[in-house]
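Repro:
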Amino acid sequence: MQNDEVHEITLGRSHYKPMLRQKVLEYLNSHKYITSLDARKEFGCMRLSTVIKELEEQGNIIIRHTLPNGIVPGEIAYSILEGGKVGTDHNQSNSIAG
């Protein structure tokens, strides 16, 4: 993991560096979805769910999908709603056929 991708702890909550959030956001915009395994392989990110939550806090609309035929049955994949920044919460749960 590079120095710009190391997270810092602030008041007991993990806040990932902006560079890692940006890399995950770019990946979401250029791929169909991202899983924790993808994030680990691509960026060395061990806490994708935290990065996703921080992206949502910035106004990005992230959709959670269940991958029934993934490496781990029931694995969660995240995708971004196309054009996806608004001020309201639009979390959805879907299933992507594997």
